[in-house]
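Notebook entry, structure prediction.
Reason for the run: the old model in the group folder had no record of what sequence produced it. Starting over properly, with the input documented here first.
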Amino acid sequence: MIDIGPNEIERYRADGYLPLGSVVDGAEREALLAAERRFRAASPFGTSAGLVVTEQVEHMSAAVRRFCCDGRHVDAVEVLLGPDFALTHNQFIVKLPGTSSGTSDIPLHQDNGYGRLEPPDDITVWVALTDTTTENGCLVVAPRSHLGGLLEHRVATTNPALREASAVETVPLELAAGEAVAFSGMMLHGSGGNRTAVERVALFARYCVPHARMMIEAGKAVLEDGHSWMVRGEASLDTWRRGNEAFTG
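New structure, fully documented this time:
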């Protein structure tokens, strides 16, 4: 269990992110790496030759499903988000080795800049499955950027499959394999290129309140999505009805 006390809660609210320490042990990490290799997308993500993204495999991988729904980080999500929350997205991100500058970069963005949720009460837990460093493209975050609300996102100049917001000052979060960080869906974050000779592999799971709606899908209730389900607590009947009514008009 990860100990999240008042000081950690205050830090998360103020900065928009919170390091969680180690959330997967060696055996769990190997199982997740094996799942990534098994289900790896057949082609790079967009035009980024060094970037491979594999989404929504929780229904095909018991290891991914266990991590998302029963991982050591889930207690921390409950403390930060509340007793009732749902899984809405999971994704492997691989930066291939030895790629030229820019081919595996992910520009600064908010998760709500891709998949806007309303209300924007959501948390992403990002776990390093290999050591992540500035040399291989570790996560970078912009502390307190979550306080500015949803920012304008445009098509990334380096890859039309990606989105980017304006550049701001960031700090790198170098993580050892198995360590994780939780951050707000409004937090600006990104990552640089992999300049090393080995792959950099990460996995994230995104969680939200059960009455959230998916605004890029015409206000669809998040729990109507086939990859979303309750992780802790319950969605009230009124919440369920409100979500369906919003989607059907």
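Summary: Residues 70 and 100 are 38 Å apart (CA to CA).
The old model has been moved to the deprecated folder.
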